[in-house]
Amino acid sequence: MKQSLELWGGLECTVARVRDDYRDQSLETGHQDRIEDLDRIAELGIRTLRHPVLWETISPESPDRTDFSWHDTRLKRLQELNIRAIAGLCHHGSGPRYTHMLDSAWPELLARHAANVAERYPHLDLYTPVNEPLTTARFCGLYGHWHPHGTGYEPFLKILVNECKATVLSMRAIRKVRSDAQLVQTDDMGKTFSTPTLSYQAEHENQRRFLSFDLLCGMVDREHPWWQILLDHGVAQADLELLLEADAAPDIIGINHYLTSERYLDERKSRYPEHHWGGNGRHEYADAEAVRMPLPIKGLGPAARLREVWERYRRPIAITEAHHGSTRDEQLRWLMQIWNDVSTLRDEGADIRAVTVWSLFGTVDWNSLLTQRNDFYEPGPFDVRAPEPRKTVLAHASESLAKTGAFDHPVLDRAGWWRRDIRFYKRPSKESRACWLADEPRQLLITGATGTLGRAYSRLCDFRGLNHVLLSRQDMDIADARSVADALKCHRPWAVINTAGYVRVAEAENDRKACFRENTKGAGILAKACADLGIPLVTFSSDLVFDGSLERPYVESDAINPTTVYGESKAEAERRVLEAHDKALILRTSAFFGPWDRYNFIWSILNTLSKGEGVEASLDVVSPTYVPDLVNTSLDLLIDGGSGIWHMANIGETSWRDFAAMATERAGFDPSLVTDAGDLPALNTALSTERGILMPHLESALDRFFIDNEIEWSDDAMKVAAE
């Protein structure tokens, strides 16, 4: 009887040296100080975990001195939780400071660490001595990203063979203690495609991609196309002969496949962004993601690559990393595509044991391959930006896959961006429905068709492949219970996003009845209707529920005290919504600005400046909110199942005057043209959060505002754009 497909878990634990700087992902994600993370993993039903027992953390100063204290506690807890550990000994690292991967002693030193680990923890029976040796060799020896920063084939190939030799020696040392210990050998697996002109380079890279597994399986003999290449670049023949013994052939081949793993080479480089340009000394060409090219879809992706690996090696396989740094819907689509592809291949007879959800607590700065410290965080099943790691939809999916082997969510009715027309450098004029995975994809219902926020949601839902209907007041009057019931019955949404409401803050003082009808009565009616049908609801509140006297940014638990009619309407709406629908998601935000409307504060300021006039702005302190960030972050939170009140504004409080000056300077105007508007005491309704900082920094948002608009603001063109 065929064993059920398992869901494994993985912790991003890289300790990478960049120049003299060490990056430790366990520290940067906070996992280092949270032993309770192991209980969170167990609650998901995960029973096998890729866990660090890293050389750099145990013997950082000398191979003769070890400190196992952190690992003692963690590995004991894993045993108590009945979780089997796959011990990782070197994860993208170059080793401690007293060695490096071009050091001839490196393999013996790692094997010494392996022996120490095996003797300390004889219960461990699964090991990955060197994670992704081919990938690490490329990043350390060919591209120069990580220590020892080699940039040629000689350091690249010497590092690769050193890593494979270290794996052999480590497994020999481990098996002296635990004879049945198994090697779970991981590496990235992609493929290179090309134009006919560059087919020779593609063939070269497609042979190269198998090197780490070929070496460990004893396949690189004198007949292998890379035997002579390795010798020609200074690799010792004795090391190649050692690997021919194949006594460390992988017991399980671990495949890590990413959307960037497949490449397309094209000598017509002007067709591609400059960051893709490169060459090999013979030809200059662009090296782009193959998924962005009009290639047959069946030849791309995890199923195609896994099939190649199975046919080449006929050894047990596991997906040892399934991760996608993107919006939450795309992360979920990627995980489920891999799970479903693996299930299909198992039905064909491939021995694939598991899929590893990666990384359980996210990653930091992998968008720059750890070469920059930007604190760019990508969540996994848990988002660590909250006071305690918060479950995302990936955690719910992981729990369901681990326990039942299946998971469903409305966003899975559409394929990921890598299978939608958005993936192409030149998009078709009309997107096909080939990416629909259901006859009628479930849809969101968005109110506020005439407003800035409603239109932004519609635009970004289109971009993210989220089917939706955008309704105006004529389509559904949220303050009319019958109108709401009819619309929900007609459209049958899986969630509702309410952006409708009264937005004229100043006019509300003389129009209280209309303001309360739209903001308060409507929100309450909609909340009750959604609650009765079990439909998730997102609705919006404001910083004006606060009086601005606190002299610090407000967090969610601060007492509300509105001083305006508009603020009162939003405060009462919050109460009614939560009373009717305790799972509703209420987002307090403020001071919208975005690239798709011409009525926000920045447009107004810059339009005035373009006429040669000065600008006055208030000293009141606010938290400006970039609409694309608000929409994307709130969609992620909705998909995660978020509820309750959240403050959602870009990080960084500022006065209206300073905000205007920041925008003015970026647009190429003189910021001294912005002056104070009066001398009234300044109020501070800035928003912070105690639930988790999910939004990007204001400085970043402002930079992207000007990039997204692509207008020469100080030019005459700005005058036309602002009209």
Automatic annotation (TrEMBL):
Pathway: Carbohydrate biosynthesis; dTDP-L-rhamnose biosynthesis. Gene3D superfamilies: Glycosidases, NAD(P)-binding Rossmann-like Domain, UDP-galactose 4-epimerase, domain 1. Its EC number is 1.1.1.133. Binds 1 Mg(2+) ion per monomer. The keyword Electron transport does not apply. Residues 443-674 form the RmlD-like substrate binding domain. It is an enzyme of class 1 (oxidoreductase). Its cofactor is Mg(2+). InterPro entries: dTDP_dehydrorham_reduct, GH, Glyco_hydro_1, NAD(P)-bd_dom_sf, RmlD-like-bd. Keywords: NADP, Oxidoreductase. It catalyses: dTDP-beta-L-rhamnose + NADP(+) = dTDP-4-dehydro-beta-L-rhamnose + NADPH + H(+). Catalyzes the reduction of dTDP-6-deoxy-L-lyxo-4-hexulose to yield dTDP-L-rhamnose. Belongs to the dTDP-4-dehydrorhamnose reductase family. This is dTDP-4-dehydrorhamnose reductase.
